[in-house]
């Protein structure tokens, strides 16, 4: 049993065969996935909810959970009205997390100060909604400051100590940092999620982190449609490929892909407190 803890299936790249993609995932053993609610910006951040409405309750498809949030790329589009709408969507019972949010210094879609303001505002809103945060952090090629800025803001505004009564926690999604970054994330009470890029030849830092992070603090994801793992690299990614990430982690830890799947599935349901694990999924 596997769970894809982070995927974007709302886009046009899936319009022709979205049902088939979901059916392949279920047939491969992926029993649920988290539909990330960024869309194309604040106006479409309910996209995960809409997918859950359409496909949940049909046994040939995985169960779909949703998140809501403004990606750092679209931070410049954030308005008070947009934040109000996110807070409204966050009350939907299918919404189990807030994100992905954070900092991205690789692209210059929104200035860093605007990204930081949107990041802080959404941490405040997520705390009010009693939802964990799903973090996007991407440094530029020649400057790792995004990690220090992102982890510093989490430590100041969201750390396990700061929110000990709520115990909301968070996820460092599609982890691409170093072992030290992973250590700092774990110390803040976060889970670390690994995607298909763990299979890429030049991704030794990610494999090192996957060997360091305890299995009970780990999730797996595809980040579909991006980062298809080897042997599918260069193709459109899809949730069924999350098994390749589990296989790579299993090889690093000298356990089976199925064991990685079972543990990360357990971690997912334990972490996301709004979910209710069905007996059939035990």
Explain how this protein is built.
The protein is globular, with a radius of gyration of 17 Å. The chain has an 8-stranded parallel β-sheet. Helix 6 links the parallel strand 6 and strand 7. It has 282 residues and is of the alpha/beta class. The protein has 9 helices and 8 strands. The longest helix has 18 residues. The chain has a single domain, classed as TIM Barrel (Alpha-Beta Barrel), CATH 3.20.20. The C terminus is likely disordered.
Write a compact overview of the structure shown.
It is built from nine helices and eight strands.
Quickly list its features.
globular, alpha/beta, single chain, 16% strand, disordered C terminus, TIM Barrel, 282 residues
Order of H and E elements: EHEHEHEHEHEHEHEHH
Count of individual helical segments: 9
Helix content: 25-40%
Biggest sheet: strands side by side, in what order? 1-2-3-4-5-6-7-8
> What is the alpha-carbon Rg in Å?
17 Å
Largest sheet: 8 strands, parallel
Write the layout of secondary structure elements.
Blueprint: E1 2-7, H1 18-28, E2 30-35, H2 47-55, E3 63-68, H3 80-89, E4 95-104, H4 112-129, E5 133-138, H5 145-157, E6 170-172, H6 179-187, E7 190-194, H7 204-212, E8 218-220, H8 242-253, H9 257-271
Parallel strand pairs: 1-2, 2-3, 3-4, 4-5, 5-6, 6-7, 7-8
